[in-house]
Amino acid sequence: MKHHLYPHSTTFSPDPQRVFSFDLEGRLISVFKGGVVYKRDLSSNVHVRYQQEGRQREVLNPEQARRFFEDVERQIQDLLPILPEDLVCRLRDRYTPDQLLDQKAKFLQVYRPISILPPDQYLSVVLQATEGCTWNKCTFCNFYADRPFKVKTPEEFAKHVQEVQAFFGEGVRLRKSVFLADGNALALSFSRLQEMLFQTRQAFPGLPVASFIDVFTGSRHTPEEWTALKDLGLQRVFIGMESGLDEVLRFINKPGSQADLLEFVSELKHAGLQVGLILMVGVGGHEFREPHAEASLEALKKMPLDAGDLIYLSPFVEHPGFTYSEKREAAGLTPMSEPEVETELALMAKRVRSMGLKAARYDIREFLY
Ligand code: SF4
């Protein structure tokens, strides 16, 4: 029996085959059992990951999730007589299967579904300053297709912050940052952002703040305003760079250009902010593979990036029925297979790292919150 009573969570492993983790409110976080990982998201969907001819990903349906939570509870009940007293004490107020299932409704009272986050923000506290995306027209993206862009009023945001605090309770200790969502939240006016960051810092002191913005909305703030936002806790700005080739940007209907991006990133860096740039690997298919990679790496070389910045490489996932697919077919572009994309991603990561920058994988299929 191994157990860890961390200041932010509880983990124990009764045998080499099983590991259970809980947050400080007693909510199950994850289970490892016989090579399979089960992760519960905040609305109690259970995401299953295992290796079988490659990495497999599933989400349990509600009935399977109920049976899973009941099975975990049975295992814990069986183990209680042999668990050390301090661990039993931590597990005393653990959520029952019904309480875990109720989290879905509670989550949806506080949040619109969270569509996507950068991987290092899966353990953030999300605050939805806005809902949706100001643009919503990139051909490959439907993250916010279900909602029009909306900005929360100051009163709505203040209420949201309180609700989020109540939702997390002591579970907040597991959270490493605050993420201002949805897409393009940093496009709000400086005064709105200033107020939001002030409230964020009061509610979640000490947690660095990150958020998304796109190049075409980035120029809304002056260099002095970016510096002021940094002083209020903003630490990292994530930008969907997608490609270093303007031709690809036009093909995916993303406004902005590499020249705009270079200028914008320079401004952010000058303000002392860290950036996270997201590049898609495989977009434009075989025909664009080389020009896309070369132009993207060239663009990175020109930017004043350093070891605090992050280059995310995202294997491009083509969804049938999206405008991207129709346009790709019409243009006669050949999609890259998954192994081809993986090989390309590994090559690009190596080249990014050889520039002294951090490269990491950003697989949207792994997202959970
Ligand atoms: S700007 Fe970002 S969130 Fe908005 S449609 Fe394009 S990729 Fe999606």
What share of the residues lie within helices?
A: 25-40%
- Give the beta-strand count: 16
User: Which fold name corresponds to the CATH topology of the largest domain?
Assistant: TIM Barrel
Query: So, the CATH homologous superfamily of the largest domain?
Result: Aldolase class I
- End-to-end separation in angstroms reads 29 Å
Mean of residue pLDDT values: 96
Q: CATH first level of the largest domain: which class?
A: Alpha Beta
Q: How many DSSP H or I helices?
A: 12
| Inertia-based shape | globular
Bound molecules: iron/sulfur cluster
Ranges where pLDDT stays below 50 over 5 or more residues in a row are none
Beta-strand percentage range: 15-25%
How many structural domains does the protein architecture include?
Answer: 2
Q: What is the level-2 CATH architecture name of the largest domain?
A: Alpha-Beta Barrel
Order of helices and strands: EEEEEEEHHHEEEHEHEHHEHHEHEHHE
Largest sheet: number of strands, sense, barrel closure? 7 strands, antiparallel
Domain Radical SAM core: 117-358
Cofactor: [4Fe-4S] cluster
Organism: Deinococcus cellulosilyticus (strain DSM 18568 / NBRC 106333 / KACC 11606 / 5516J-15)
GO molecular function: catalytic activity; iron-sulfur cluster binding; metal ion binding
